[in-house]
Design goal:
With about 325 residues, the chain is mainly α. About 75% of the residues lie in helices and about 0% in strands.
């Protein structure tokens, strides 16, 4: 897909403006979003993503045998995959914010800062991944092997821990920061640092943001290879990540306890990652002329949509059944 520097500049300017507007609106009044507010913002971001994908289909300029709508399907496939992985990541965010005892009124600010860091890190990973793919097609074998390993590990972890989720909040980055940065245990609004007795110290909200940012680096190691398995266009990879991450904090407040009901989400994501791993390997083998067939983009989108819908439905049915059994047992 031919993307001119002007298109990149305009796109980044518009996306930055959306992000800045969201940040300003949040900073003016830190609060816990109501269900209505969270729903409205999620609908806005989903609608913007849909409009963007349709715009790709209408105005993209193909440079290969693909059509503009092929690129639109790649965008939607990448967007749904990244959104699904982001929902799974919310489990970890819940544990991080809970274990670090972040007041609900400041959680939205912490999540927003974490999302901004995620966009920066993923932008760097996308540029690095695109450069590798452009020069070394064999990197798809590595990406495929890593995704296959990640998918299998998700299944093994699920069998070991069942519905329980665990998170390592005290990462190497966090341990280093805590050793070298003077701190206070008291929150001072959304300030990262304050002066106490003439000495500059950092507040807990600073460490929360560092924790979220360092954990997202690990998340990006899964999500970036996954989306490169669906599209090799850096423009589509970045925009799909942007729209998937924006609205994530509202989703955190909207879903709340519902996340605990998606007990089979990890298994669904494991299947998606393994499917994309096979797709990556086939793509690399096709590049070297070893096979004559690749997984069609439409099939990728269909597999992702069906898998998400199927695992979500099964999860809700299981939790409803478990609740019914609990009620019968208590009676």
């Amino acid at each position: 897909m031919h993307v001119t520097p002007l298109v990149w500049i305009v796109t980044l300017s518009v996306l930055t403006a959306i992000l800045v507007f969201d940040v300003i609106m949040m900073i003016r009044k830190p609060h816990e979003p109501s269900m209505k507010e969270a729903t409205i913002w999620i609908c806005i971001y989903v609608m913007l993503a849909v409009m963007f994908g349709i715009g790709i289909g209408l105005f993209a300029h193909p440079v290969t045998d693909k059509t503009s709508w092929d690129y639109a399907i790649e965008f939607f496939s990448g967007y749904l995959t990244e959104y699904s992985l982001s929902i799974d990541n919310l489990f970890v965010f819940i544990i991080v914010l809970g274990s670090m005892r972040v007041p609900r009124v400041y959680q939205q600010f912490a999540l927003m800062c974490g999302i901004i860091l995620a966009l920066v890190f993923r932008g760097i990973f996308i540029m690095a991944g695109a450069a590798l793919i452009e020069r070394f097609a064999w990197v798809f074998f590595i990406f495929g092997a890593f995704l296959l390993y990640t998918g299998i590990k998700l299944v093994i972890d699920y069998r070991k821990h069942g519905e329980e989720e665990s998170a390592q909040t005290d990462t190497a980055v966090m341990r280093f920061v805590k050793r070298v940065v003077p701190s206070t245990d008291e929150y001072h609004g959304t300030h990262f640092s304050v002066k106490i007795d003439g000495r500059r110290v950092f507040t807990p909200i600073f460490f929360v943001v560092v924790a979220l940012g360092s954990i997202d680096i690990m998340f990006a190691l899964d999500s970036i290879p996954a989306i490169f398995g669906l599209t090799q266009e850096p423009y589509l990879v970045f925009t799909a990540n942007f729209f998937a991450l924006m609205g994530l904090r509202q989703l955190y407040f909207l879903l709340g306890g519902l996340l605990q009901r998606l007990v089979y989400l990890s298994l669904g994501l494991a299947f998606i990652l393994c499917f994309i791993a096979v797709k990556l390997v086939l793509h690399a083998m096709h590049h070297y002329g070893w096979v004559s067939w690749e997984v069609p983009t439409v099939l990728s989108l269909l597999v992702i949509v069906v898998t998400i819908a199927f695992t979500a439905t099964l999860s809700l049915l299981k939790t409803r059944s478990d609740e019914s059994k609990t009620e019968i047992g208590s009676n």
